[in-house]
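Good morning N.,

You mentioned wanting to compare the apo and holo forms, so I went ahead and generated the holo version with iron/sulfur cluster. This is what I fed in:
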Amino acid sequence: MRAFDYHQAVDSGQAVEQAVRRDGAKYLGGGTNLVDLMRETVERPEMLIDVTALSRDIDETDAGGLMIGAGVTNAAVAGDARVRLRYPLLSRAILTGASAQIRNMATVGGNLLQRTRCAYFYDVAASCNKREPGAGCDAREGFNRYHAILGASSSCVATHPSDMCVALAALDARVHLLGPEGERELAFNDLHREPGERPELETELRPEELITAVELPPLPMAVRSEYRKVRDRASYAFALVSVASMVELDSNTEDETIADVRLALGGVATKPWRAWQAEAVLRGQPATEETLAAAADAELAVAEPLSGNAFKIELARRVMIAELSQRIVDARKGGES
Ligand code: SF4
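and this is what came out, ligand included:
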């Protein structure tokens, strides 16, 4: 690891000021990804600005949602009674990720900005466009079982690794930012970029912008939301396919129809993947197996498999249909209560 300077920020404004003053500075959350990357010399910051002491509360919003500070640990979010009751998929997604030790260290802000676990990205002897623009991509013809079938480009096929972010994509969360120009908000689904020709650019953050909070809007149907993760082993593994889902039924129509739905995928795409195509097929349609299959097929119509991950297309299709079926069962029970 290379030598670096360290600064502990006392508030968000001071953190941003420090980042503006110092070239090569990076914000430090729990360090569960950034420090690993520094050890491998993939990341080489001149200075770390520690923001872990900032924004550590979870507050009610006037709109009836929750505002989660960027410094709140993943464990604290997952264990919060309001999150568990009103947004259970978020709690569940976090608990399927990493280990208890990592969840106790990792922060919300850091989780959003964690980088891919593509092995070639970590191996400085490999060719990787994300680490070294223009170098090539060893994953395309290499070991790509864990790589993306959606949102990829000829430059990069790496998946986004976060479970929590898949839940946030489904929840229509908003990201609160502070930068040299002041505060602004971004829709969570606009935060991450697809790689295109610039895989080294992963988010829409402006230089020196700091994530200060993540806002969950009120969403009544989220009380029946779920997150399912399919992986090679039962714990401490990244998703092959994961699905975040919730469904609202309209039982007043002659055919029971899907009034509203949220669906997002993990493990298959270059960013937390909101299944917009599938949702469009589902809304207003009868809650039947045929509708669910048509929705899954619509979402996966543009999937492009690599040599080692064609199985993800059928796996994603099956998990989407199974999860939506179960959410419909849950919604019927919810309607009776
Ligand atoms: Fe690098 Fe992306 Fe290729 Fe992995 S998939 S080697 S991160 S360019």
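The chain has three domains: 1-54, 58-113+161-216, 223-336.

Happy to go through it together on a call whenever suits you.

Best,
F.
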